[in-house]
Every structure is written in structure tokens, then in C-alpha cells.
Specification:
Distance between the termini: 55 Å
Helix content: 25-40%
Radius of gyration: 19 Å
Order of helices and strands: EHEHHEHHE
Number of strands: 4
Strand order of the largest sheet: 1-2
Low-confidence stretches: none
Shape: flat
């Protein structure tokens, strides 16, 4: 039986290790991103996907942020270290209106 594995996110930059004895030999690994999928499905289906995302921005597709920062804060050493951690649950929203 063919198995399709999808990698979601890329916070961990280590190589992806797979146990062939558990998966067998009929499998594939890839990533799935909505933006790469939309051109393949045609305008009507793409619009339905876009509408679903818009409708569910505060539920299914909500993304909590640890902190909102301005552009000037992006270059501060402590902020750069925080970004470099790539920690799950630590997203920063950059608000250009904050300066």
C-alpha cells in the first residue's frame, strides 16, 4: 500500500530521518503548501479555498503571536537571537506602523 508523507513546517532544520522498516518501500515524502496547490486546481476551486481561509482566520487558520514588534526592533540583538531559536509557539508579528 502506497503511503504519502507530508512534512509540515520547517522549524527543525535537521535532516529528516525515515525508518524504511516501518514504512516499507512504497512511499513518498513531500511538503504541501496551499499557495503551490492553488494554480493547479483552477479558479473556482482556488476561490473556494481562499474563501475558506478568509472565513476561518480566527479559528482554524489563527496564528497566535508571542509579541508584536516594530521594524526598528527587528535588528536588535536580543530579537535576532529570539528569531534564530525557531521555537514552536514563538511567533513575532512585525508591524511596520510601529517604526
Amino acid at each position: 500500500m502506497f503511503k504519502q508523507l507530508y512534512i509540515y513546517g520547517s522549524l527543525d532544520t535537521a535532516p529528516t530521518m525515515l525508518d524504511r522498516s516501518a514504512l516499507g518501500y512504497a512511499w513518498s515524502v513531500s511538503a504541501w503548501l496551499l499557495f503551490h496547490y492553488l494554480p493547479k486546481v483552477g479558479p473556482e476551486v482556488a476561490q473556494r479555498f481562499r474563501q475558506r481561509v478568509a472565513n476561518e482566520l480566527t479559528t482554524t487558520f489563527a496564528s497566535p503571536y508571542t509579541r508584536t514588534i516594530g521594524l526598528a526592533e527587528v535588528l536588535q540583538p536580543e530579537m535576532l537571537r529570539a528569531f534564530d531559536r525557531k521555537a514552536t509557539g514563538e511567533k513575532f508579528l512585525i508591524d511596520p506602523s510601529r517604526g
